[in-house]
Specification:
The complex is a heterodimer. Chain A is of the alpha/beta class. Among the domains of chain A are: about 40-70, no CATH class; about 95-240; about 260-330. Helices cover about 20% and strands about 20% of the residues of chain A. Chain A is built from ten helices and 15 strands. An eight-stranded parallel beta sheet of chain A has the order 1-2-3-4-5-7-9-11. Chain A has a four-stranded parallel beta sheet with strand order 6-8-10-12. A three-stranded parallel beta sheet of chain A has the order 13-14-15, with no helix packed on it. In chain A, strand 14 (about 290-295), helix 9 and strand 15 form a beta-alpha-beta unit. Residues about 1-30 and about 360 of chain A have low confidence and may be disordered. Chain B is about 50% helix and about 5% strand. Chain B has a single domain, classed as Potassium Channel Kv1.1, Chain A (2-Layer Sandwich), CATH 3.30.710. Chain B is mostly helical. The longest helix of chain B is centred in the middle third of the chain and has 21 residues, at about 70-90. Classes of the chains: A alpha/beta, B mainly alpha. At the A-B interface, helix 1, helix 2, helix 4, strand 14 and strand 15 of A face helix 3, strand 3, helix 4, helix 6 and helix 7 of B. Chain B: One of its GO terms (biological process) is protein ubiquitination. Chain B: InterPro entries: SKP1, SKP1-like, SKP1-like_dim_sf, SKP1/BTB/POZ_sf, Skp1_comp_dimer, Skp1_comp_POZ. Chain B: This is SKP1-like protein.
Chain lengths: ~350, ~190
Amino acid sequence: MAAEEGPGNKRRRRREDVGDVPLGGGDGDPDLLSRLPDEILGSIITLLPTVDGARTQILSRRWRPLWHAAPLNLEAHFGTCSSHRVASKLSKLLKDHDSREFELSVYREIPPSVLRFSHALRVLHIRKHTDFSASATCMLNFPTLKHLTLADVKTSESALSGVLSRCPVLETLLLDNIRGVSHVRISSLTLRSFGVSDCGIFRLGSSLEEVMIVEAPLLERLTPRVPSNLLVIRVLHAPRLRAVGYLHDDIPRLQLGTLHFKIINYEEKRPDVNFIKFFILNARVLQSIQFVVRRDKCGAKWIARQHKKLQVNDRASQGAIFDFEADCSLGSSSIVHVKHIHDLAMDPFDRSLCRCQGDELN
Amino acid sequence: MEVDKGKGEAEETRKVAEADRDTVTLKSSDGKLFEVSKEAAARLSTVLAGMIAGGSIDDNGTDLKQIGSEALENVVDYCNKHANSIPSAALISSSISFNTAPFKEPEEWERKFVDRLSHDALFDLVEAANFLGMERLLDVTCHKISEMMKGKSPDQIREVFNIKNDYTKEELEEIRQELAWAFYDD
């Protein structure tokens, strides 16, 4: 049976009906690129940096309407001497563009004209913004925002909880060293990944002391990043939570009800051993702990020694399982890249898949 | 999937055994036959998955009239490579694992896979992937094309892809003004 108009492919509409001509027989038409359907050219434009993507309009008439309809990855850096110029161009661009999906990275001041488009944002990264107060943000709605980063932002508890309450589809959230807030309470029906850090040193306002996950039914990952200076983390209700880490000894208190643990970079150091032993001896609902260790360790003898050290025979949860496995990746850094907090498809701890450059740490 | 191969898989019962076979045979527009892992085909192509589930797979080679043999060979090669690359991609994990949906960026072998293709073969593969509903292969090939465009001026892009500039001078000027911000640092 021949595969004719097969079902189930969003992008498969062809621009021109080529009838029975085999796809492989592209003779006579040397412009193979422009022959591709709109949807595919749109995907290619989306993969390009903002400027390169916009410039495709100038290629030929075929390309003119494509950019307007393609989802954009928009990067704009404010704070330079030409910021007003960039801002006005950007708001013009946002108005011209038909798509409702934008990705926006801003540094320092966000021009109000740009924030008027908060309803169209899908991704927002704000760094070093000086005024994220309640008065500056109370008018903002983010009905389509899925990924939010606030880094080195001065805000307040009411502004932050107000903004979060107006992000009804937020999936990933990163709060990096925010100031002016000592307690953060997170309640979100859609949040799946949450990262937080606090350096506690260069504080202008009060620094973050406690994060409480009150209600997050879909939360899978909780990532305290370095540094997490004296940060207390409490998880009240996050039944889907599967990954917490990396944990550091500068986190004085972590309270949660999760059942599975995966310990990466286990190295038999005393603080590690004491920390894990504490869980083993006290956690009554523990189902498993998986240890990822350097490949050259992980022999049967070594594992037996760890069992003894960690007192697994005295475990509080009799059914708990302890697994040791060798880490296939190289190096042992306990840094989780920003990208991995926002990328839900990726195991944040699996460095074998990581292609982030050093500058993507921040 | 390959548990019940049965003992007496004789020639005459080939048809019956066909349902249990772990490969499917695909036929290109020019009549060449290719075998591909049924599991990989079903996982990577929505169209092949539909055909397998719907029983419209032909034992003597399912006709794919729209795909030439070179493109189909690449499709099959990709499916088989994909099937083989999975265990090495992640930690060998036991009790808990993360949601291991495919990584968005192409993996090393996928980059190499598209890098070795000629210009024509790359575009044939895009169209074949599109026809067969192979999202991942489309992502990988689109990524390759975007890499070929990145950082180039419109003139350079036109040259690489043979795009004919069909704008009038006036139109071109108008667009350039509209896009002044994008040409700001030129």
